[in-house]
Amino acid sequence: MSHIINYRLNQFSWAIAALLLLPLLFTKGMFFDGLTYASIARNINDGIGTLRVPSYTPTIHPEFYEHPPFSFWLHSIFYRLFGDQPWVDRIYPYTMYGLSVLMLRRIWVLFIPAGHRAWIPQLLWTLTPTVIWVHQNNMLEAPLSAAVLCVVWLLFEGTMKKNYFWSVLAGGVFFFSLGIKGPVSLFPLMTLPIMATLYADRRKAALVSMSIMIIVFSALFSYFYLYQPAFESFFSTYLDRQLLPTLSGNREQAGGALESILEVLKQLTLPILVTIVFRWRKKEVYTLQRGSVFFFLLALCGTLPFLFMDRQHHYYFMPSMAFWMMGFAIHLAQHEYPWPIQRKKWVKVISLSNLCSWVVAIGLSIYFSKSPSRDKHVIHALEAIEESYKPSAVKVDALSENWRLAAIAERYTDYHFTENDAVYYISNMPGEVAGFEFVEQFAKTEIYLYKKSR
């Protein structure tokens, strides 16, 4: 295939990303986990809680130990740079998307001399449903995936070029990735053992690079744990309250192994179908490449541990998706594509597609900029309560049944929900409430506002 067509396809991969991500750039509303993480980051920027002890709301996790804090701190920098704007909650994960793509491309160049075909893994990864969903909803897997890919790239640079300065940097980034979501970032440790197994000529360099990374990581972790009491306190509390209960099955239970396997297969549907079609159309045999085997094994290391947990969600598998797609991409790239290509025609078609994608993406982002994309009427209702009544707290009967409302209120207003006494009270059912008088029902919602009787 002509280099110029590959150049246009590289542009096309970015145009598709713009089409999938930009329409939501200026909108409000996300999955409530993403709202929670955004609220914690905003609080850090506002001086409520710290990097060492993050805070969610005065009544829900006033000291937040559910996840390590490094992503919240990084997100708070974006608030410091751009201000408290809803679109900052998109810019942050979108930046992580760009960093992940950069890492994918750098890894590709190390394995495939045809660097101009790096659009293949990028496009496959971008079109993976959970990847787009994670970046649209500000999930921790967005910075986690970027950090994991960076660790793997640095390890490759250190090993394949025998420049172990990269391995030192890998140890630092690995420490940071562990500070984003804990042990789920450990699977890159298998990168060099797998390389040493499959690439005998790199075995010694892989051992040296791995040793350096582990020494640097251990030194960093030991320093912070031994000489930074706040770090030790947070890590110990996170271990006791979140990690160990989760691993022992004493926290929320969601999904099962069979459901997760089906979910992974759903995410892999596109590359599997493309592989089947290409093998059917192409006369040459597609052999299983050593590079593909390498990345498939690394992807399995990031996928299999979740199948043995009681708590499983589709986005947990997202960091491993980059390596699945890299494996498929290397397999597909061994031959030119099984269709005749008229260069001038396809350059025009792809160029026009790129232009149309960007125009549509920018047009939709402007069109949706004045309307929340998710929980539209609820967001309008809670913002209207703040504008009209300016409460500092609003009472609800059961916080555990109102996580979504609490997340929306914490991110987009300056009041919080509580089960304690307050001047205002919200119910999802009409009727008389002892000690309160009805104030307002908000259109197209089941939100009924009451005010304490005089």
What does this protein look like?
With 454 residues, the chain is mostly helical. It has two domains: 31-339, no CATH class; 376-452, no CATH class. Helices cover 62% and strands 5% of the residues. It is built from 18 helices and five strands. Strands 2-1-3-5-4 form a five-stranded mixed β-sheet, with helices on one face. β1, α18 and β2 form a beta-alpha-beta unit. α8 packs across α10 and α17 (376-389) packs across α18. It is globular. The N and C termini lie far apart (78 Å).
How many individual β-strands? 5
Sketch the major β-sheet: 5 strands, mixed
* Low-pLDDT segments, ≥5 res: none
Beta fraction? under 5%
Terminal residue distance = 78 Å
Question: How would you spell out the order of helices and strands?
Answer: HHHHHHHHHHHHHHHHHEHEEEE
How many domains make up the 3D coordinates?
A: 2
Strand order of the largest sheet: 2-1-3-5-4
Structural class by sheet pairing and helices: mainly alpha
- How many helix segments? 18
Helix content: 55-70%
Rg of Cα set? 24 Å
Overall 3D geometry? globular
| Average pLDDT taken over every residue | 88
